[in-house]
Amino acid sequence: MRHLLFVLSVAILLVGCTTDKVTEQQEQHVKPTVMDETTNSEKPAEQQSHNLASFFPPNGSTAYFEGQGNEFASFSLQTIYLDDTHIAQIEDNGAVTILKVYRLTDSAIVLVYKKAVDSHPSLPTAQEAASFAIIEPMLQLPFEVGNSFAGWTIQSTNASVNTGTNIYQDVIVLTRTADTITTKKYFAKGVGLIRIEDTMKTANEEPFVVTSTLQTIE
């Protein structure tokens, strides 16, 4: 009888040890899966951040916009990359030249410098640009309809826009209303800004519309 009890006791101990080992092995098997999920969740944000640079024209290029509704709506836009995260643009409409500097962050393209300059301005260094304070965002993740920032709202992320010289797909459309003027900006991946549209309410039934539309990039 005692021998039988001893055998049963040993059997119970062996079963308990085996169960503990199985449980430990299961826990060790689960932990790497949790770590992998965390890593995968970070990848989309990293990829989106990297793609923000694609919303600018090529370095050293000059884009030409045709204006309608106002004599100063036509302008040229020269793009210069100061470094990997700072991009300068010189906008000239024939009456005034404006230098703008943008910074690429993890989640947005932000304007950090804007000033009227002469027709051949001196550009800030990358080190100087890095010290500029943020003025406002130009584009901000996530690119989802309804997302708002600095008064702008994403109206569309898959618009088709015919500029007269090209048809752009998957265009991001931003809209902002201030007083009686509603402004829309259109951004295409690989090009950047392709159209600006200002619509002003008037006493007449027909609104007053001013547009600037990309024609060529050289």
TrEMBL record:
Residues 36-47 have a biased composition (Polar residues). It comes from the Bacteria. PROSITE patterns: PROKAR_LIPOPROTEIN. Residues 25-47 are annotated as: Disordered. This is Lipoprotein. It comes from Lysinibacillus parviboronicapiens.
